[in-house]
Give the backbone structure.
Amino acid sequence: MSAGLGLINSLTGSSESISNDSGTLEIKDSKTNLTETVKYESSGECLRVIDGDTIWVYGIGDVRLVQVDTPEKGESGYDDAKKFVEDHCRGKTVYLDIDDKEPADKYGRTLAIVYTDSEDINRELLNNGLAKELYIPPSEFEKGEI
Ligand SMILES: [Ca+2]
Ligand SMILES: [Ca+2]
């Protein structure tokens, strides 16, 4: 898989393509019912959900949702978290606010807040009790900000 994925990344992973694809969204928080305008820097179709905190986005590759941690395979809650992300993201366009201070982790996964056209998936994983908070500095996003 890495050869093809690397090719896609090298074709589309430049900062130019990211800045050409930015915009804003109206996001509603299911817990507070507040609507917020957020900006994103990149977008693409989510074709695969690896688990509750990692998805695969066409043109971008693996994306690790920042500040959340969902259970690993075999752990309680794994299926629920993965299903939530599948139901909300798979086959849809997702919009990324990439962590400007730490754009990728050591595995090469893009670190980002993932939005659908109406939801902050990182935030909704927490709202629904499907993930716990995980803050790893350095990060563009303040602790507890997402
Ligand atoms: Ca995890
Ligand atoms: Ca950003």
Observations:
- Strands lie at 23-28, 35-40, 42-51, 54-57, 61-65, 68-69, 93-98, 110-115, 132-133.
- The longest strand covers residues 42-51.
- The radius of gyration is 14 Å.
